[in-house]
Hints:
- The protein has helices at residues 10-19, 97-106, 109-132, 137-148, 168-175, 179-191, 207-211; strands at residues 21-25, 30-32, 40-46, 49-54, 60-66, 71-72, 83-86, 90-96, 155-156, 161-163, 195-197, 202-205.
- By secondary structure, the chain is an alpha+beta fold.
- The strands form 3 sheets. The chain has a 4-stranded antiparallel sheet with strand order 1-8-3-6.
- Strand 9 (155-156) and strand 10 form a beta hairpin.
- The N and C termini lie far apart (37 Å).
Amino acid sequence: MMFRDFTLTDKEREALNAISTKIHKPAKRRIYAQGEAGKYVYRIRSGAVRLEHHLHDGRNQIFAFMWSDDMFGAIEDGVYPASAIALVDTYLFQIPYAALLNLIEVHPRIQTLFLRQVLNYTQAARRHLLLATYPLVVKRLAGFLLECSKQADFYDRHSNILTLAMDRRDIADYLGFAVETTSRMLKELEDMQLIKRLSSQRIMLDRPKIMDMF
């Protein structure tokens, strides 16, 4: 059920569910495109999404990864300023902006809950900025793996195995270095015995040792 982690009255919860549609996006499928009219806000039921800005020179700049329970779909001047792409099979709640604005007039307390989501998004942007500005590239990648390990859907705390939702190009675009650097830094982390690569997407982490880097 949507907003299960929020303290809502039954009437507020029912009202939100009434204007929300459950949708599914397969891996690598676009949810919306940069410049498209902004009609919906989204909340992730399960899965992962990348938000990217398309630059004039043809490059894509990934500036956020969104996870289960995260909300996205901010608009500027009536359009989406970035594109949203599902990284894996992703299940979403889709909420029309117009219906949400009408709902807030009836249930004004709901607006506070959405403001909380904006704050969470701002904190995610701050973490991204911090990671991308570490002078040591290997530290950027180590910090990124730690951030990913906070997602219970992708990290098994019993086996310490992280399943990456994104590919190496996504990681490189997010952290601001070349794709080849991702592979090289993964090998360096493995040589330092901080990780063990089990496959292209599955990595065993020594979280305590990685945390000692920061």
